[in-house]
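Lecture 7 notes. Example A: sequence first, then its structure tokens.
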Amino acid sequence: MDRQSQPAAEDLPQRVWVFQQSGSGVEKIKGIGKYGKGLIELKVFDIDDDLPPVIDDATAWLPQKIEADLVLDYLKHPDLSDELAHLCRRFGVPVISSGKKGPLADALTPATCCALARQKGLGAYARIFGLPEFRVTTARGRIKSVEVLRGAPCGATWNVARKLIGMDIEEAKTRVGLEAQFCCTADPAGWDPISGKSPVHIAGELHKAGLVKALKNAEENP
């Protein structure tokens, strides 16, 4: 293949490596596979072992080299997350460790997967997944259509959007947050001591904010 006929980097599937522990990322993996189909190529590393409380050497569970465009950390063991972050730094690969607290090398640590802001360097994943964004049309005070421009990797945003069709606009502003919480796969026990809210509550508020913003720019159809 000559140089001019080579596909641009953005035309190639983004190589995303996912690290999960005892199925901790299964719903997100399904959502990424469904809504990122054709744009994201997933490789999943499953760790199902009974792990010791402290891991000094993670080589038995993590690869020696990272050959990905992006890494998603759904691990539960803090030592594995820490080592994974350092491994990604070593190979210059961005890593997203949603909901993790404490320093993790250069890892991005949004409060929830749907709290990830748009930013350069994260490829197709960050264009499709992160802070919820909608395009809405309305008719006679009700929601006629909802298009998800960006949403939660677990698929909650797309599930919520379908439930809003035909709903009264003012009711939808209230219901969207509740519906997002029902669909959210985050751990509700993971309370943030600063905000006093769980990831599930945060997800609900982010979906509400995204819908309210979309409604301000909504197209009115007869």
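Example B, a different protein, same format:
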Amino acid sequence: MKRRLQDENIDYLYKAILSLKNTEECYDFFEDLCTISEIKAMAQRLLVARLLRENKLYVDIIAQTGVSTATISRINRCLHYGSDGYATVLDRMSEEENGEEEK
């Protein structure tokens, strides 16, 4: 399936991200690639997605993150009608967290 954004440059970017081996390498790469604001915005969106999956109220999400209702609504739309990218990541992270707790 051809995606709207798919091209050689984006493929190269994603392959670069997949080549990273640990959190420290991610910090190094993303600090070089993105501005601090961009990194914080991406992290904030992922947090909002997690809070929405935990059935938190918009008012509580706003209080915790400071994001707008428009941003929360957009992420909520992605969770329900998107490409399941958030769901994939959040499910895997939850599995890892639960697996680590059992050890």
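Note on Example B: The CA atoms of residues 11 and 89 lie 19 Å apart. The chain has two domains: 1-33, 43-102.
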